[in-house]
Structures are given as structure tokens and as C-alpha cells.
Amino acid sequence: MNTFKLLRIYTAENAYSGTTKVFQLICERAREQQIAGATVLDARLGFGRNAHLRRRHILEDERSVVIEIIDADTKLRAFVTSLSDITGIALVTLEAVEVLREGDL
Question: Is the Cα torsion angle 36, 37, 38, 41 positive or negative in sign?
Fold first, then answer.
């Protein structure tokens, strides 16, 4: 068993930084910085501080997206600092997690 940190980055499916979607850019940077792993999760429904409901519409993609990243505390804190140039990030959280099993995917 190993203790790591779980970083969660909240954004929107239709958020862009330049010409690249924010969630894609964050995952690409995580991979470049050799972060242990990242997963992008689509939310069915969500809202933030402004209480605007985000959901998938027929003609547009407006869902909330959560990027979960697991690694060591110091590595994740440095990674968050490296994202300062990316617009469209709503919230970033960090919490302790205990990894019970690691597999290869």
C-alpha cells in the first residue's frame, strides 16, 4: 500500500486554452511531466459558484469535466504551478489517497 495525492481539476468540456481543449492540454502536460496517471471524467450534470447548470445539450457540449491525477504531493503541486498559463480551469483540489492495487493498462 502506498499513499499518494489525488489532484482534481474542474473545467468545462467546451473550455479552450488557445486552440486546444483545456482537459486535453492538461493531460498532455501531465504525460510530458511523467505524472503517474490521469483520467478525464464527464459529469452528467453540474454547477459551480455561479449556479449555471452545465449539461450536454443536443447541439453543444457544455458538460463539466473533472481531471483526476494521482502522484506524489510535491510533483502534483509543481504540476499545478505549471498550469498557470491555462485559462478555463474552475477549481483545483488535492487530497490524500491510499493506493491499494496498481495494474497495467
Answer: negative
* CATH code of the domain in which 89 resides: 3.30.70.120
Instruction: Tell whether 11 is covered by a domain.
Output: yes
Q: What is the count of structural domains for the chain? A: 1
The structure's pTM equals: 0.84
Would 34 be classed as within a structural domain? yes
The more confidently predicted of residues 9 and 60 is 9
CA distances from 34 to 47, 53, 58, 69, 79 (A): 31, 34, 37, 11, 10
For residue 39, give Cα distances in angstroms to 6, 44, 65, 99, 103.
11, 16, 10, 15, 15
